[in-house]
Design brief:
1 helix; 0% strand
């Protein structure tokens, strides 16, 4: 079983980059489309039983 270990490491927030909202939204849309396709295929398989 994995054990969570706390560390004292600090993150320099000035080095964090945030992609534009359009890129983030596009990635979420891709993920959503893939999930929807998998669900449609699964329901078709169930209907064919």
């Amino acid at each position: 079983m994995a054990k969570h270990v706390k560390t004292q490491e600090r993150v320099d927030i000035s080095q964090v980059t945030i992609p534009p909202a359009s890129e983030v939204n596009a990635e979420f849309m891709k993920v959503g489309d893939n999930i929807q396709k998998r669900h449609i295929e699964a329901f078709k398989r169930l209907a064919d039983r």
